[in-house]
């Protein structure tokens, strides 16, 4: 059974960059779309971007649309990455990846398999 583990979170200064990774085990990713989401304290879980099983990318959040956040996929490593750039304090959140069969969806409730999340804190 597919399991997801996020890594790469941490403390970064405003304006800095970070790459978070979502690594799968138990199955290969080539039959799944992988979405990245984030949830800040007191806020709803927000969709950021998704990579589908054809490695096509879809951008859902303003940050992704503006190019500050970029998704990439390495099926050989069974890993999907989210590069975070020009980070702001308001980007502080737990970042999650999630899987669903076949195609990408923007809504979190369309995904049935989640990782545990990785904390990203942007602070001076």
Protein topology:
Blueprint: E1 3-7, E2 10-12, E3 18-25, E4 32-39, E5 46-51, E6 57-59, H1 62-65, E7 69-74, E8 79-84, E9 93-101, E10 113-114, E11 118-122
Parallel strand pairs: 2-11
Antiparallel strand pairs: 1-3, 3-8, 4-5, 4-9, 5-6, 7-8, 9-10, 9-11
What this model shows, in words?
- It contains one helix and eleven strands.
- The protein is mainly β.
- A hairpin with a 6-residue loop joins strand 4 and strand 5.
- 3% of the residues lie in helices and 49% in strands.
- The mean pLDDT is 95.
- The protein is globular.
- Unreliable spans: none
Structural class: mainly beta
Output mean pLDDT: 95
- Give the strand content: over 45%
User: What series of H and E elements makes up the topology?
Assistant: EEEEEEHEEEEE
Assign an overall shape.
globular
The Cα radius of gyration reads 13 Å
The share of residues in helices is: under 10%
Query: What is the number of helices?
Result: 1
Counting DSSP E segments of at least 2 residues, the number of strands comes to: 11
For the largest beta-sheet, the strand count, sense and barrel status come to: 7 strands, mixed
Distance between the termini: 40 Å
Descriptors for this entry?
11 strands; mainly beta; seven-stranded mixed sheet; 124 residues; four-stranded antiparallel sheet
Summarize the structure.
With 124 residues, the protein is mostly beta strands.
């Amino acid at each position: 059974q597919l399991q997801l583990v996020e890594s790469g979170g941490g403390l970064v200064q405003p304006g800095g960059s970070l790459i978070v990774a979502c690594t799968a085990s138990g199955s290969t990713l080539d039959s799944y779309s992988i979405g990245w989401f984030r949830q800040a304290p007191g806020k709803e879980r927000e969709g950021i971007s998704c990579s589908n099983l054809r490695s096509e990318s879809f951008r859902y959040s303003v940050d992704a649309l503006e190019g500050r956040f970029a998704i990439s996929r390495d099926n050989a490593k069974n890993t999907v990455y989210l590069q975070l750039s020009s980070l702001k304090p308001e980007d502080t959140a737990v970042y999650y990846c999630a899987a669903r069969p076949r195609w990408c969806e923007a809504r979190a409730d369309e995904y049935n398999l989640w990782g545990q999340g990785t904390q990203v804190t942007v602070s001076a």
